[in-house]
């Protein structure tokens, strides 16, 4: 009997090892450990044994069952793992195929430039001021030291609606309005972005509508040197630390002294090339000390208060920064143009 | 203003300063030099030749065979095509081996069987602009004066061995519209002296005032009129050097008398006019305003109709010149002229501007009067011109001048303190530095303690207030030398306003949702201005539009966004999503500024989503675009305050458009563009929305407040309702939400069916309702009770029945 049990164990273990599927294994389990299996059969014959032998044989039978069960379990685990692996192998995909696209648009390049400039000046304590695009002649010209009949009005031929109302030719009226609102008191530190309009035929370098961004600082001790320092911070942050700035005298009716700011040419490093017209410098913006007439008209005592102002064209800056060659691209909105400005710098 | 580097040396020593260096210095101290042109760049091998013989080319009618002495051992044969070539002429010859502009190399050649050893040149072939070439040479070769030396460099003789600086003058620096003015500027920059031009007149005994009497009625616009008289002039060409200087400055030579007036215009900045005295028909000059409708033929042979705005020079009765703008054909100097009345006058800028603008006559002369001439140079300019006419036109200058003078010239006297200079510029200058700057400018100064008082010469009419002095100090001290500082004193908080911050969030959101930002024009056509407008009203039209296409301020952004889609669609990008934020303009009557309202518009066309290899493709539909709008309101915390109401709108699909209401107010629309417009623009199905961004960003958002996260499970009940087709889900939703409160937490449409499995005129809408209580677990009975109430209400109010 004992021998028969050992035999069964060996036989079962051999079959288990040879089994190749979970089904086969289950059949083995039923065959050997089931109620109709050979071990049960053997145990049925236990009645013939003596009272001493019976527990010994019982224990042995259980050992054999246990051994077979353990073996089956181990084999089952192995087979299951293999089955999983086999299944996963069939689930293999081509990971180089493109993903499901997530649609993302982006800022217009001019907005991108304007927000960059806004953020730069916000960091220096400026607020963003906005105003109407259709303006009174007073704020657009007169309050800026451009009385009627002033020859400099020719510099910016305007779109008039009535004799007193026009499309603003610059964002400077926002400065005039802001100063007026401050009722002769300082300090003011603002940056004014927005659309402006001039009578120009649209071509590669002219647009009847374009953007401007201007800055104004008014206080009790604002100096020309502060303007120079501020513009240098701006130029280096906007165009790179290696850029030099230079101020050249110029003329604007609303500032005196007036200057234009150039930055050193990035392309040639200042040696002169076609981009900078051989000068090594590229004109970026106009600036100056606020004209005393402008201060007085807005209610400031020009003996006590001084200020500086500067203004630039986001189109020009975008053209320089990104190498755009035609200003009309900004208003055509060709998606092949727009989508080039998606990358964060 | 074009400034010849060689000519400038008549007035100032430029030794040690090249043209390029001078340009750099002028630019840095105030006047932008826009370019420096080297006149003989790329030209070599051109000499003066003497045409010894000229005969007809044997094989070509239009060619001449010439034997030309070019200063070499043997004369050379040259074939020339110019009609004006003739024996005995001194001409410019590009010898074999010469190079002309455009890298045009001259080689020995055979022309129609005849040898040609070079080329006889016209001035344009030597790089000069056709519009400055004297008329007699404009169709052929240029002919030098007979005394030109054979074999010498022809370009030198033509003053082409020169460089021309192009000054970009701002309106305040009219003083540099003259060589003398530029000389003063350069003198201040270099710290050198100015040499004034020569005037040495030996007048004949007769008096100019015996020949003509000057009367000025319009004294305000013409406070000074000076007439010099020159007798016995012989009209002929001006000396070559004067002609070439005029050409370098962009002026075409005519004859000695006219050229001299132009030369003085360039030298002194004072426009002059020469009348043929004998053709005036009187011994009188009367300056007055024109009569209304008065006719006058200017020397360009155009008849002008005048108004009292225009100032005229008359012979006592008839106009002979439009003051400061152009002379008359009736008194023009001709080759027969012998007596010249030379006008040198001060006309007001306003009068000249009006006349030149009204008649479209912008000239070198009018430009100078408009910007203001130096009142103290009027007489000197006349004297110098008379001197040159004596010297180069053989004239005799009569003594004195006939004048009308009511001009008072007060030089500007301006004071400034050293403290102010340093306070505004941020510098640490001492009085000696400041004085030296004004000395260099040749401004008279007096100093008293900390104050410097400056008397500005009349040529610098732009110096009026102390800031003008500040500017002179700053530019001549040098902006490079001004330190760099940052503003000190009380600081201001730098930040965006709530409105600006939210606007940026909206842009970010829309871009995150797949829309590109566009920027389009505010000016549009009459037709497009009102299309899709939220509010109809009067349009705002430009007084003088440049084109009809850009004549009206827009009331809606949408037409331009659709144009953007059309543009891209025509370029193989027919699936696209764009948005724009910008102002629209509502008229507020002629007297006041329009109402400007910031709008947000978006347009989506074609495929909204496509992922080809997985077979996914979804065209945009109403709910894609509405979803974008809803997401924006959710982002701004306004979701609960917005309603969508079926609406009919011009330009929109009548069944697929909703009005957007915020707090019950109409603020925009969302829907499909009318199929006929889609077709017209060649667009695929296009869904859009436009709304008042101002209304949205100014709406008060709820205060952010934490809400307990539910700890107890919710119970979900689904219902499918059969309702009339006209019943909208929003109505059902509202009933469900109102009746289910407070236990009902969410109600969501999850199915919609309209079709043949349902009674005609009906549709089925299925909702999923979620009930919960934050403080306890709900029992089935409780939910059933509320749910029953909801169903009853739906049935009562809409006739909805549960779908079996
Ligand atoms: Zn460069």
Automatic annotation (TrEMBL), chain A:
This is Phenylalanine--tRNA ligase alpha subunit. Keywords: Aminoacyl-tRNA synthetase, ATP-binding, Cytoplasm, Ligase, Magnesium, Metal-binding, Nucleotide-binding, Protein biosynthesis. It catalyses: tRNA(Phe) + L-phenylalanine + ATP = L-phenylalanyl-tRNA(Phe) + AMP + diphosphate + H(+). Signal peptide: none annotated. Mg(2+) binds at residue 256. Belongs to the class-II aminoacyl-tRNA synthetase family. Phe-tRNA synthetase alpha subunit type 1 subfamily. Residues 111-340 form the Aminoacyl-transfer RNA synthetases class-II family profile domain. It comes from Neobacillus vireti LMG 21834. GO terms for biological process: phenylalanyl-tRNA aminoacylation. CDD domains: PheRS_alpha_core (cd00496). Binds 2 magnesium ions per tetramer. The lineage of its organism: Bacteria, Bacillati, Bacillota, Bacilli, Bacillales.
TrEMBL record, chain B:
Its EC number is 6.1.1.20. Belongs to the phenylalanyl-tRNA synthetase beta subunit family. Type 1 subfamily. The gene is pheT. It is found in: Cytoplasm. This is Phenylalanine--tRNA ligase beta subunit. Residues 710-803 form the FDX-ACB domain. Its cofactor is Mg(2+). Mg(2+) binds at residues 462, 468, 471-472. GO terms for cellular component: phenylalanine-tRNA ligase complex. It holds the Pfam family FDX-ACB. HAMAP family: Phe_tRNA_synth_beta1 (MF_00283). GO terms for biological process: phenylalanyl-tRNA aminoacylation. Residues 409-484 form the B5 domain. SUPFAM superfamilies: Anticodon-binding domain of PheRS, Class II aaRS and biotin synthetases, Nucleic acid-binding proteins, PheT/TilS domain, Putative DNA-binding domain. GO terms for molecular function: ATP binding; catalytic activity, acting on a protein; magnesium ion binding; phenylalanine-tRNA ligase activity; transferase activity; tRNA binding. Binds 2 magnesium ions per tetramer. It catalyses: tRNA(Phe) + L-phenylalanine + ATP = L-phenylalanyl-tRNA(Phe) + AMP + diphosphate + H(+).
